[in-house]
Amino acid sequence: MALKLYFHPLSSYSQKALIALYENGTPFEPLMLERANEKRGNEFKALWPIGKFPVLVDEARKRTVPESSIIIEYVQQHYPGTTRLVPDDPERARDVRFKDRFFDLYVHAPMQKIVGDKLRPADARDAHGVAEAKAQIGTALGIVDREMAEKTWAMGDEFTLADCAAGPPLFYIDKMTPLAGSYQNVAAYLARLKRRPSYARALEEAQPYLSLFPG
User: Fold this and answer.
1) What is the tally of structural domains in the chain?
2) Domain contains 209
3) Do 130 and 60 share a domain, yes or no?
4) φ/ψ of residue 63, rounded to 5
5) What's 12's domain CATH number?
6) Residue 169, in any domain of the structure
7) What is the mean pLDDT of residues 193-206?
């Protein structure tokens, strides 16, 4: 199989890439990263010393592709499916990429800051950084809640890269503090995302590991 994906099903950025792959039924070999498989972990670190996953390996084209957004665009370019997650129209494509960056930078990253802090030893926690992350999430969700009042998906009627970016962090934020209490439109959007077969599959695969989530 030409494509291999190094990932973990609990990883929110891994889920982002998986949503895109499942959305188009893209064939790939899943290579799950776990502590018990030291050989695979060393293999992964040799490919991408930064050590962040997911990472896609395209053996046919001899390419190693890190970063979820880049993986999704790479697969669309070289292994296209029926769902165009980044539109062909340049103006629309730029809007989708902006929305993708919005979710990654202002929802996803601060969510990971909060979760990561919970995993630190008590004497190494960053209360100030967590407070900043919570404030940023609140501001971002307020924007999303207003926008989603009249939308089905992040860009309107079409499912895109932006929705792949939105689902995983919203799911984990909702696990920590239910969205329905303050962000009804975001909560409804997350419910639609969870019903989408591509994301439902990613969530089903994450289910055995959810007990490890510290939220």
Assistant:
1) 2
2) no
3) no
4) -125, 140
5) 3.40.30.10
6) yes
7) 98
Given its phi and psi angles, is residue 208 left (phi above 0), alpha (psi -120 to 50 degrees) or beta? alpha
Q: Are 9 and 15 in contact (CB under 8 A)?
A: yes
Distance in angstroms (rounded) separating the CA atoms of residues 164 and 16: 5
Report how far residue 136's alpha carbon sits from residue 133's, in angstroms, rounded to the nearest whole number: 5
For the stretch 93-97, contacts whose Cβ atoms lie closer than 8 Å and that sit 24 or more positions apart, written own/partner, are 95/155, 96/155, 96/160, 96/161, 96/162, 97/69, 97/161
Model confidence, pTM = 0.96
The CA distance from 189 to 191, in Å, is: 5
| Residue 99 sits in the same domain as residue 198 | yes
Query: What is the tens place of the pLDDT at every residue in 28-58?
Result: 999 999 988 999 999 999 999 999 999 999 9
Q: Same structural domain for residues 107 and 67?
A: no
Share of the chain above pLDDT 70, in %: 100
Pair of tokens at residue 45? 């670190």
Q: Which amino acid is at 156?
A: G
CA-based R_g, the chain, Å? 17
In the listed set 47, 78, 109, which residue is the last one of a domain according to the structure? 78
